């Protein structure tokens, strides 16, 4: 049987984690799991249903009504997230969700709920999962851990272009403020804060093309598979 490993990619918002993770999974024939999409989908449910996430009982009750799954889109070959049977892959990218997702993701019950599902998804290995705490909390035993970063100005511009395509009224100042807020919450939250695992390899993609990023990651994968 061909050896398979777990690959985790953690890092800051809008530093290109998902893009690299998707391409890497495609080249390896692995399953890509977007952990951030899970937290966004939970946030979307909370917003739609006016859940007061400052109350633990309300959060626990809401989580009991949420079903998340990733299904393949046969038209583009991408894995997309479904919330209670509804494809919400594009709805969850809205700035309204982005402004609240770090708050929701910081809640202990929410993280426990998501981590259980993520660990189940990776039980057979052969996955690439990106997020904030995948290499430190979800899969601390992963064979390959990557921590991605990029220059702040590049991150802001990348996120602005992504949002502008969906909402031409968004301003770059709004995007910069949102990223700064998310960075602070992600790195200072009490439960599973964003940090680089001690055995994670650093990938700064500020000046790297996608092909260069993939070649570096594939080299690291080859090293792990041959070790």
Plain-language structure description:
The structure is a single chain. By secondary structure, the protein is of the alpha/beta class. It is built from 9 helices and 8 strands. It has helices spanning 17-28, 35-48, 56-63, 95-105, 108-121, 134-138, 152-164, 172-188, 210-225, and strands spanning 6-11, 31-34, 68-72, 79-83, 86-87, 127-131, 144-149, 201-204. The strands form 2 sheets. A 5-stranded parallel β-sheet has the order 2-6-1-7-8. A 3-stranded antiparallel β-sheet has the order 3-4-5, covered by helices on one side. Strand 4 and strand 5 form a beta hairpin. The radius of gyration is 17 Å and the shape is globular. The two termini are 16 Å apart.
Order of neighbouring strands in the sheet with most strands: 2-6-1-7-8
Strand content: 15-25%
Give the count of helical stretches. Answer: 9
Shape: globular
- Report the span from N to C terminus: 16 Å
Q: Helices and strands, in N-to-C order?
A: EHEHHEEEHHEHEHHEH
Largest sheet: 5 strands, parallel
How many strand elements? 8
Calculate Rg over CA atoms: 17 Å
């Amino acid at each position: 049987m061909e050896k398979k490993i777990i690959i985790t990619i953690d890092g800051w918002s809008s530093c290109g984690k998902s893009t690299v993770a998707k391409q890497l999974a495609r080249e390896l024939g692995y399953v890509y799991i977007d952990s951030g999409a899970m937290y966004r989908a939970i946030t979307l449910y909370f917003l739609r249903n006016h859940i007061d996430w400052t109350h633990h009982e309300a959060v626990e009750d809401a989580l009991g009504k949420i079903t998340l799954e990733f299904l393949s889109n046969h038209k583009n070959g991408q894995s997309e997230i479904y919330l209670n049977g509804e494809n919400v892959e594009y709805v969850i990218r809205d700035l309204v969700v982005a402004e609240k997702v770090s708050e929701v993701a910081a809640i202990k019950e929410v993280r426990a709920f998501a981590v259980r599902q993520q660990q189940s998804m990776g039980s057979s290995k052969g996955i690439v999962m990106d997020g904030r705490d995948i290499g430190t909390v979800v899969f601390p035993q992963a064979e390959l851990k990557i921590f991605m970063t990029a220059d702040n100005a590049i991150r802001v511009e990348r996120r602005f272009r992504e949002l502008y395509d969906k909402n031409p009224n968004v301003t770059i100042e709004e995007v910069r403020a949102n990223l700064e807020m998310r960075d602070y919450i992600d790195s200072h939250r009490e439960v599973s804060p964003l940090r680089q695992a001690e055995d994670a390899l650093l990938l700064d993609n500020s000046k790297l093309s996608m092909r260069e990023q993939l070649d570096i990651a594939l080299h690291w994968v080859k090293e792990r598979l041959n070790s």
